[in-house]
Amino acid sequence: MNKVGIVYGDVYLSYNFGHGHPLNPYRVKLFFDLIKHYGLLQVLNHVEPRMASENELMLVHSREYVDKVKRLSERGYGMLDFGDTPAFKGMFEASCYLVGGTLVAVDMVMSGKCEHAFNPGGGLHHASHDRGAGFCVFNDIAIAVRYLLDKWRVKRVMILDIDVHHGDGTQWTLYSEPRALKVDFHESGLYLYPGTGFMDEMGEGEGYGFMVNVPLPPRTHDDAYLYAFKEIVPTLAEEFKPDVIIHQCGVDAHFEDPLAHLALTTRSYAEIAEIMHELAHKVSGGRYVMVGGGGYNVGTVTRAWTIMLSKVVGIELPDELPREWLIAFKNLMGYDPPATLHDKSKPFISEGAWRSIMADVQHVVREVKKRFSRFFK
């Protein structure tokens, strides 16, 4: 048995909002091509995605909304929100494949076909019960949680979301669900879409105390981010004791991403993957499902996901990118590819700014621990 599964098919390219839209579908293909040229497919269990059924979509979304998406998909134009999620021909089918890919990853892990699985096409965390938003038509993460609770009868699911944008759709869908602990690291909603994810958004009813938001200031750097991550995530996982972990792996907190203001390098993504892999084996029997997410610099996305997957597989990759992939990147994107797998540069942050950011993040950590003292004993 290959212990890590990868769910990918070229059908993912059909999830395409059109030329010039920030969410470039080629980022997923180029990621898959990169792991292939590095030889990782030889140690991965590669499977194609399937379409999610309408009943599976309605684990989270309303009948009316599903029908609306189908109508707009057939028509081929219109808007799902106020401007950044336009309809396109075949949108319904393309979206069903992304959701189905995440459910395939869940089934692979829960059936024992592999210990961990990654669906780079997933991670669509802004869609909610009756609306799409933020480039997300259906919310595969929330659907996967309901699927795990209903079909697989798990008792507890932990969701870790490291996308730079707060996962509002996932939050509101699971806001009263005590069997799901959601931990979300993101740039503060004071500065960035969708304007949510503050620390006082802690859940409601039986779910109160199971929504952990970690809003970070602009220019949060590797040292500050990793400090917060190590202070918060391992303790929550060890105390909650999830049966399975779902990890949304958005990489738009990287300093080269054009849509946000954090300052991470590939160092953070490597360390996060190592921590989560170790935690999965420690607290959830190794059951660990990774999904994609944001990231709008194609070269950054492909490299960061490759680094994260290599950490989970346990193979150190050479920093030199494969020549065949470099050519494919240039041909597909029309501009020069990245120079190396890992970042060789990092953002300039003055010593004073570095200290100020660290102090702000330390304050956030103290507040999180205070609000969630039931976990931080």
Layout of helices and strands, plus pairs?
Blueprint: E1 4-7, H1 26-37, E2 44-47, H2 54-57, H3 63-75, H4 91-110, E3 116-119, H5 140-150, E4 157-161, H6 168-173, E5 180-187, E6 211-216, H7 222-240, E7 244-248, H8 266-283, E8 288-291, H9 298-313, H10 323-333, H11 351-371
Parallel strand pairs: 1-2, 1-3, 3-8, 4-5, 4-7, 5-6, 7-8
Helix pairs in contact: 1-9, 1-10, 4-5, 7-8, 7-11, 8-9
Task: Describe it.
There is one protein chain. The chain has 377 residues and is α/β, with parallel strands linked by helices. It has a single domain, classed as Arginase, Chain A (3-Layer(aba) Sandwich). Helices cover 40% and strands 11% of the residues. It has eleven helices and eight strands. It has an eight-stranded parallel sheet with strand order 2-1-3-8-7-4-5-6, sandwiched between helices. Helix 8 links the parallel strand 7 and strand 8. The longest helix has 21 residues. The radius of gyration is 19 Å and the shape is globular. 53% of the residues are buried. The model has no long low-confidence stretch (mean pLDDT 97).
Return the CATH class: Alpha Beta
- Low-pLDDT runs of 5+ residues are none
Major sheet description: 8 strands, parallel
Approximate helicity band: 40-55%
Strand order of the largest sheet: 2-1-3-8-7-4-5-6
CATH architecture: 3-Layer(aba) Sandwich
Strand proportion, as a percent range, falls in 5-15%
Quaternary organisation of the protein chains: single chain
- Counting helices, strands and paired strands, the structural category is alpha/beta
How are helices and strands ordered from N to C?
EHEHHHEHEHEEHEHEHHH
End-to-end gap: 39 Å
Task: Count all strands and give the number.
Answer: 8
Mean pLDDT: 97
- What count of domains describes the coordinates? 1
Continuous helix count: 11
CATH superfamily: Histone deacetylase domain
CATH topology: Arginase, Chain A
Question: Rough shape?
Answer: globular
